[in-house]
Design goal:
alpha+beta; Aminoglycoside 3'-phosphotransferase, Chain: A, domain 2; three-stranded mixed beta sheet; two-stranded antiparallel sheet; 9 strands
Length: 235
């Protein structure tokens, strides 16, 4: 239900296309456990297409804001991690207290301790302390695996899927696009033609990338743990 709501919210902006949800529900298996399903519109997708337009359309989607604060009407999910979306009028408090801190706590519960965790969290607070951006509608998990291009030769267009939406700093979506292999330069050119990123974004980018690295360390472990530690040291 959360994913359906995210998709519908993005579609309602009439900016970048998203795979439309058609039906959802649950069925009981023979062992009486339930399996949930979400049926999506089928769109043929290619890996590459008009990246400049993709950047422009994401910037236009980010122009859809709310005055309720930072958050969302209910929980959304980034992978299997629930996102605390209680409305908060302070961006630093929201991102530190409702994004970074919960993941660090869950990692500690699993016996994964980062020596520089608390110091890096304080540094993140310092970086975001006076930053109060517009509360933009976000995709929330924007890496290369969650965007594609309709390959139609007459009307090729970018398509979003697998969202983890909430209202927050538009820069968080951009930071994610630079974490696991940067998007093509044309994407950032398109974005900046609509919504130019300030120079101070460079300082906030590692703070925003930390959220996704912590989440990957929690969900997958392995090499994401030393990668997370490296970013914490850098902060």
């Amino acid at each position: 239900m959360a994913e359906q709501d995210c998709l519908l919210r993005m579609i309602a902006t009439h900016t970048m296309a998203a795979c439309a949800p058609l039906a959802l529900g649950s069925v009981k298996r023979q062992d009486l456990s339930s399996v949930s399903y979400l049926i999506l519109q089928h769109i043929p997708l290619a890996v590459h297409g008009d990246w400049f337009s993709a950047g422009q359309q994401l910037a236009q989607m980010h122009q859809h804001t709310t005055d309720q604060g930072y958050g969302f009407e209910h929980i959304t999910w980034c992978g299997e991690s629930a996102q605390d979306n209680h409305w908060n009028n302070n961006w630093s408090e929201f991102f530190i207290g409702q994004r970074l801190q919960p993941l660090l706590s869950k990692l500690r519960e699993r016996g994964i301790h980062f020596a520089n965790g608390d110091r890096a969290l304080q540094r993140a607070k310092d970086i975001l302390e006076h930053h109060q951006p517009a509360a933009s509608l976000l995709h929330g998990d924007l890496w290369s695996g969650n965007i594609g291009f309709n390959p139609d030769k007459h009307l090729s267009y970018p398509v979003l899927f697998d969202p983890a939406s909430y209202y927050g700093d538009a820069e968080t979506d951009l930071a994610m696009t630079e974490l696991f292999g940067r998007f093509p330069t044309a994407f950032y050119d398109g974005y900046n033609s609509i919504n130019p990123l300030p120079e101070s974004y460079e300082q906030r980018r590692p703070v925003y990338q930390l959220y996704h690295l912590l989440n990957h360390a929690l969900l997958f472990g392995g090499s994401y743990i030393p990668q997370t530690e490296s970013l914490l040291v850098r902060l």
